From TrEMBL:
Keywords: Cytochrome c-type biogenesis, Disulfide bond, Redox-active center. GO terms for cellular component: cell envelope. Gene3D superfamilies: Glutaredoxin (3.40.30.10). Signal peptide: none annotated. It comes from the Bacteria. It holds the Pfam family AhpC-TSA. This is Peroxiredoxin. Residues 194-328 form the Thioredoxin domain. It is found in: Cell envelope. GO terms for molecular function: antioxidant activity; oxidoreductase activity. InterPro entries: AhpC/TSA, Thioredoxin-like_sf, Thioredoxin_domain, Thioredoxin_ResA/DsbE_sf. GO terms for biological process: cytochrome complex assembly.
């Protein structure tokens, strides 16, 4: 009869420890000091609900999880920050400051896509290029819930209804079953209703002094109106301001008005500070909430549109050089 030595038992223990480590399914999270005491929620995208929560007690800790057989799209919610991830087998690394989850193939893919989009935005990429990036990611993941991320981004970067419809037709049932697809379809419907050639839909808000203003007021004065939907935190929005200034200064005395519409802003002070920093002199409608973006099917900003005095939408998704290209012909003889 063979005897098991202490050395053999030690080897067995080490082997079992290594195996257990390899089979460990955990999210290793890191948070900045100021978030200690905050609540972290795990949000189920499919069921549109929060499924778990915990309080941040240290700047780094671990959260065990059970891997799913099917690809299941979740989000980590902390304050206003949402980070997509898939509970894929292995060790997931969540970095709150970067807003990413890495460590496994699918999560690396999601992170690479979102980081790529952010990099392109910082580089001043056109919406056409960003739509192409989103489309590529969607097509690579169209058979799982992960593809829904690509669809959402694609909608943010297109003003053309047909290309997005074509993508939607390729979505698998698991994507179409996501609750947010209903919101995407509603956005698409409103986008169709407010395409160039259609009549504008008026909405009302107030300026910083509390006076009520609307697009209709300017149209009633026989003016063409450039409407700029923007936010102080949006870098591409801020890059458009010099081009709006140039056109505004050139045509304001010929019948052109510009109206800024503050959307998705966290604090009024942030908006007012940006207006001062950027030297914006045209009126700002500051409290339309989400009404304006819903009415016009806006999923991404900046969104600059031109409306004629008779209420017809002349153009949407204008930017930089295309702003003057759309405006100049209207005032050539004036």
């Amino acid at each position: 009869m063979k005897k098991i030595s202490i050395f053999s038992l030690l080897l067995l223990s080490v082997a079992l420890f290594i195996i257990s480590c390899r089979n460990k399914n955990v999210i290793k999270a890191t948070f900045p000091q100021e978030l200690i005491g905050s609540i972290v929620y795990i949000y189920d995208v499919q069921n549109d609900s929060k499924i778990d929560s915990l309080i941040v007690e240290e700047t780094s800790f671990e959260m065990p999880f059970t891997p799913e057989k099917e690809v299941r799209l979740l989000q980590i919610l902390v304050g206003n920050q949402r980070t997509y991830f898939v509970p894929e087998k292995g060790v997931l690394l969540y970095n709150h400051e970067l807003g990413v989850v890495t460590g496994t193939p699918l999560n690396e893919s999601i992170t690479a896509f979102i980081q790529g989009i952010l990099s392109s935005l910082k580089g001043g990429a056109e919406h056409k290029e960003l739509f192409a990036q989103s489309k590529e990611f969607f097509l690579a993941h169209k058979d799982t819930q992960v593809g829904g991320i690509g669809l959402e981004f694609a909608l943010s970067f297109t003003e053309e209804v047909t290309p997005f419809h074509e993508l939607l037709q390729q979505a698998s049932p698991v994507i179409l079953a996501l609750p947010r697809m209903a919101r995407i379809k509603k956005t698409l419907d409103n986008l169709e209703k407010t395409q160039p050639g259609k009549k504008f839909i008026d909405f009302e808000g107030t300026d910083k002094e509390g006076n009520k203003i609307s697009i209709g007021e300017y149209l009633a004065q026989g003016q063409y109106v450039l409407v700029d939907f923007w936010a102080s935190w949006c870098r591409p929005c801020r890059r458009e301001i010099p081009f709006l200034k140039k056109v505004y200064d050139k045509y304001r005395n010929k019948g052109l008005a510009v109206l800024g519409v503050s959307v998705w802003e966290k604090k009024l002070e942030d908006h007012l500070k940006a207006v001062e920093e950027l030297g914006i002199s045209w009126p700002q409608l500051i409290d339309s909430q989400d009404i304006a973006t819903e009415l016009y099917g806006i999923a991404g900003i900046p969104q600059i549109m031109l409306v004629a005095p008779d209420g017809t939408i002349v153009a949407r998704d204008l930017g930089q050089e295309t702003i003057e290209a759309a405006v100049a012909p209207l005032f050539e003889k004036k």
